Amino acid sequence: WFHTLQVRRLRVQRGRSNSDPLGGNSFEQDFQWKTGLQFGTANSYLNLEKLGEGAYATVYKGISRINGHLVALKVIRMKTEEGVPFTAIREASLLKGLKHANIVLLHDIIHTRESLTFVFEYVQTDLAQYMTQHPGGLHSYNVRIFMFQLLRGLSYIHGRRILHRDLKPQNLLISYLGELKLADFGLARSKSIPSQTYSSEVVTLWYRPPDVLLGSTDYSTALDIWGAGCIFIEMLQGAPAFPGEADVFEQLQKIWAVLGVPTEESWPGVSELPNYKPEWFLPSEPQQFRTVWKRLAQLPYKTEDLAQRTLMAMPRDRISAQDALQHPYFNTLPPPIMQLRDTVSIFKVPGVRLETEVRDIFSPSRRIKPSLVPLAKCW
Amino acid sequence: MARTGLCDSKPLLDLHKKEKAEERRAPLRTWANAAGPKDRWQPPEGDEPKMAPAKMEPECRWDRRLLVSTSDDIIMGFHEDSRTHTAGTMLHITDGCPEEPLLLYPQGFPGLHSLQALVPGLLRHEVEIAMEKLGLIWDRSYAWDIFLDMMKNQFRSSFPNADLPRPFTDATRAVLVDWLVQVHELLHFQDETLYLAIHLLNRSLRQIKVSTVNLQLLGVVCLFLAGKKEECLLPEVSGLCFLMDNSYSRHQLLRMERKVLCGLKFDLSYCPPLHFLLLSASIARCSAKMVWMARYLLELALLEGQCVVFLPVQLAGAALCLARRVLQEPPTPEGEAAWCLASSIHVGSETALLKIMHILAGAAAKAHSRETCATFIKFSSPETMHVSSHPGLRNAPGLLGVPPLHT
């Protein structure tokens, strides 16, 4: 009970998609204002509280008046000058075509003159909050099922010509059961024939692959795989894999400290990338992952192997999501998990369930079974 | 111009330069220049291993046999398969019944797509290479999945019949499409954007009540929405109003945008026939001229209201077939083998193919004398190898023999 209360309080302070400099300060007035609008226009949903603020939208928690289900309402600011923002159009159009257990479900779209609201399924928390709540690294079994679901979702979108392009723990929603769902497709875009060079500046720096940091605009599915690898390490280690603080060069330096500075031999073509200036980097040799991230040393070798295959400097070397799902690391999961229908959650497979995390900041002494928590939500 | 923030610099287009509208004869074709035919297809002597005719022979015969005798079986098999597949998924989403089998293959039988089971590995290999060349995919491991997805999704993009709601006729629609082709060119949009825009127009004409007065507005809004979905640089709303001689206000345009988005339920996904065309052409090792010819014929199909009942892959196949007949390039063993392989992508009966070819041939023969000649002009430029003024097109219908009875 206490646990959920804390989660809710936390949500108000932390933006879900992007950090909000104002935090919860403008919360009251914003809440009032939006509620008024919503009541006037879309009567079927009731706003409850603000969950976060993104680059072009504000997310509220709401209740559907039709069936009483909790929903997340993403209210998009309408630019009166240019009509519906193109990001909203792309996100809606993409999500309409995506039906998968590991992709957040878009229930409804409410479009009025003043606002555009996407109605999503409500998911209790996200991976960033989950990791804050369970510091010092997650249970290795839970890491495995989160990672499996992340790769399953990625494999699904990559098979449909879609890149997420903004993977980070804040965009991975986690339900009370432990279902992981990819969210925030505002930057995703399905690719069409003329290979357009997308601009840089799309992925949060920590999860950005070295090829993009070096200025490559030739994005591929490997972009998302690097992000997944960083999240994998972060879940195990309890701290970000490459927490660069300032700029692109510092971020690169963090990566080279582990992978070694790439050369034309180790990565053909690297010297042609715009930001490649080897004289700027401190010389560093490739390190063993288990010496950098100590948790890997405590786990079987296949964990380190998967991390290594996802965190390859050269994008072409990185494993695809499809192949990663077949990696021996996932052998310990029940075999039927590999043959599920797209829309079926892995928790339908007997024997798959979230393990209790060893560490919990809210009840350091008591162990809460996560499966009991939703009982507190029967309002 | 408003940047959508997802692209690098493209030349900004000053919409207010009136004379640009007039110089239709020498339009700047940024996209064509940026990725001309040379970049997008390599001729067979590129880095690809040449297809040895001897090696091809058994596969090729296999294909031919299938195409002649059981082509419908493949196709129907695929069709049904895709239908049942999507139907199954839909069912599961809508009611989420627990009785639904959780596993894809409850018996552990892995052969799911009959097409996948039937096609030779060679076709799959060629499709993967072609998709990679065209930049349709990022890495080859997903190529076949994406191709199957394209094949499946196209079934949602054709219409059951070609009837338009009351005040509109194919002629009014053709005039509008012709004008949109010109605006599209003026805005330097990609070709996919045009196909998407016309598809949106076709859908909205059927799903939204629009008066004749607002038809032009609807067309512009469809193009605007297609641009928002696909393009990096967008025109400003005021610029679009200017293109329509300010007959509509910005407010009206935005209201129409809302109406269209709601009417289409925000579903703007579409698999343009152009993708299938380029894919087949790449597999068939077509010459650059042949591809331009096929693209021209395919774009003419946009003007033809009756073409909306056909699948994108059928339109693309017909355009390519007709281009081959018109250009009459001397056959080579490699070329024939590659063509044979490429034609096995086709879905549907040969009658449908012939029907589309007749429509296209008729359109191409008259294109120069019609009022709606923007496409004709566009493809008469040197960049497009003057394909639209090819003498063979004048008697294109004659190449096909007698038209099928049921038209």
TrEMBL record, chain A:
It comes from Myripristis murdjan. It is an enzyme of class 2 (transferase). Belongs to the protein kinase superfamily. CMGC Ser/Thr protein kinase family. CDC2/CDKX subfamily. The keyword Nucleotide-binding applies. GO terms for molecular function: ATP binding; cyclin binding; cyclin-dependent protein serine/threonine kinase activity. Pfam families: Pkinase. The keyword Signal does not apply. This is cyclin-dependent kinase. Residues 45-330 form the Protein kinase domain. Its EC number is 2.7.11.22. Keywords: ATP-binding, Kinase, Nucleotide-binding, Serine/threonine-protein kinase, Transferase. GO terms for cellular component: cytosol; nucleus. ATP binds at K74. InterPro entries: CDK (IPR050108), Kinase-like_dom_sf (IPR011009), Prot_kinase_dom (IPR000719), Protein_kinase_ATP_BS (IPR017441), Ser/Thr_kinase_AS (IPR008271). It catalyses: L-threonyl-[protein] + ATP = O-phospho-L-threonyl-[protein] + ADP + H(+); L-seryl-[protein] + ATP = O-phospho-L-seryl-[protein] + ADP + H(+). Transmembrane segments: none annotated.
UniProtKB/TrEMBL annotation, chain B:
SUPFAM superfamilies: Cyclin-like. Residues 17-55 are annotated as: Disordered. Keywords: Cyclin. Residues 17-26, 37-55 have a biased composition (Basic and acidic residues). Residues 271-393 form the Cyclin C-terminal domain. InterPro entries: Cyclin, Cyclin-like_dom, Cyclin-like_sf, Cyclin_C-dom, Cyclin_N. Residues 178-262, 275-362 form the Cyclin-like domain. Interacts with the CDK1 protein kinase to form a serine/threonine kinase holoenzyme complex also known as maturation promoting factor (MPF). The cyclin subunit imparts substrate specificity to the complex. Belongs to the cyclin family. Essential for the control of the cell cycle at the G2/M (mitosis) transition. This is Cyclin P. It comes from Myripristis murdjan (pinecone soldierfish).
